Amino acid sequence: MTEATDRYDPLASAGAGPARPEPRIRLASPVTGEEEVEAMRDVLASGILTNGPATRRFEAAMAERHGTEFAVAVANGTVGLAAMYLAAGIGPGDEVIVPALTFIGTATAVSHVGATPVFADILPDTFTLDPADVARRITDRTRAVVPVHYAGQAADLAALRRLADDAGIALLEDAAQAHGATYRDRPVGSWGDSAMFSFTPTKNITTGEGAIITTNDEATAQRLRLLRNHGMSQQYHHEILGYNWRLTELQAAMGVVQLGRLDAILATKRANAVILGELLANLPGVVAPVAAEDRDHPYLIYTVLVDATRRDAVAAALDEARIEHRRYFPPIHHQPIYSHLPDPVLPVTEDVYDRAVSVPFHSRLSAADLADIAAAIAAGVG
Ligand SMILES: Cc1ncc(COP(=O)(O)O)c(C=O)c1O
Given CA atoms 351, 295, 213, 358 in this order, what sign does their dihedral have? Predict the structure, then answer.
């Protein structure tokens, strides 16, 4: 059996806390099968292992699914964000507005390209960027706003699109968690100047590592292709400073199969969200995830808010039941790497983090698992 420490864990760090017993219900459980094995076997038989037809098929399928003209595959979401920022012309001296309640990569990729992340507050229901707070933080150095679709649920894209257009800045979606999500019946990934989707194993569909950037702008797509392949426009002709950010053909072939599974996974999760929402409905101080009416929520993450004074008790009850849990995400503005930045005032972010408990919500949960999760939360809020 795989050691817990070998599993992908975005929050794990060397020597992080005492060892816990192996969880009975895990946070993530990727759905893979014989179809992925076959697709990867075909790639091996073809002898083309990178930058080939499977990558093109994966890109075309993602572009079609998210309603964009172009899609460019890269090695992982963090370099995908850096590529997206570079392709938008962001660099030293620039500011990029991001939420703080997100995975660290949203901000570190800003730093990787030499720019400065500026943290804005979130809305209390969807935990996504508050357009009014974003507007307050725009300066003449701001080049882009980066909404993160928290748990995959779209940020307020209409308001942010308007705001970005009025300010003459880019709207770049961090859609890492949002495969297949929609806002006002239009797919995420098609609202921004470009958008990044990640395929790590905690996502609804996965290629182990990997990411795709969608865009409707041909010049952006071309720049992304140059960035991922050493800035090379022809064999050994290097036009810009590029990188090796390519996805392997094995991953791309897996991605095509995974994309075919997406609708079934989303349907299961939406049905389970109704069940778990009902189980939690009458618990004191407990707020289940809010699905905004004009959005399709893909429930990548299931974050429950509890009374802050009961949060530790809820965590202890989940531990006791051997149900894995996290707090998605420790706010980035408190991370040591950003201690040099002016401290932003983010009251909603702080409040959500103080009350947040994220519980397992992968598509393989049984009715009994959902009942056990609800029972542990109920025991914790007492
Ligand atoms: C919101 C968000 N942004 C960026 C990333 C970084 O993606 P990757 O892990 O593929 O580098 C992730 C998650 O993994 C994420 O959840």
Answer: positive
pLDDT at 14: 42
CA 333 to centroid of ligand 1, rounded, Å: 17
Q: Distance, CA 309 to ligand 1 centroid (Å)?
A: 30
**Ligand 1 site: residues with CB under 6 angstroms?**
10, 76-78, 102-103, 105-106, 148, 174, 176-177, 198, 200, 211
Same domain, 207 and 331: no
| Type of residue numbered 295 | R
Q: What's the token pair of residue 353?
A: 């983090």
For residues 247 and 300, state if they share a domain.
no
**Which residue's entry shows tokens 């930045």?**
341
Residue 15, in any domain of the structure: no
Model confidence, pTM: 0.95
Q: Distance between CA 113 and CA 357 in Å, rounded?
A: 33
Mean pLDDT for each 10-residue chunk of the chain (382 residues)?
A: 44 52 95 98 98 98 98 98 98 98 98 98 98 98 98 98 98 98 98 98 98 98 98 97 98 98 98 98 97 97 98 98 97 97 96 98 98 98 94
Whether 127 and 182 share a structural domain: yes
Q: What's the CATH number where 300 sits?
A: 3.90.1150.10
Answer yes or no: do 158 and 285 share one domain. no
Answer yes or no: are the C-beta atoms of 378 and 38 closer than 8 Å.
no
Nearest ligand 1 atom to alpha carbon 149: 1
Q: How far does the centroid of ligand 1 lie from the alpha carbon of residue 78, in Å?
A: 6
Domain assignment present for 13: no
**What is the reported pLDDT for 224?**
98
Is the domain of 269 the same as that of 231?
A: no
Structural domain of 375: 262-381
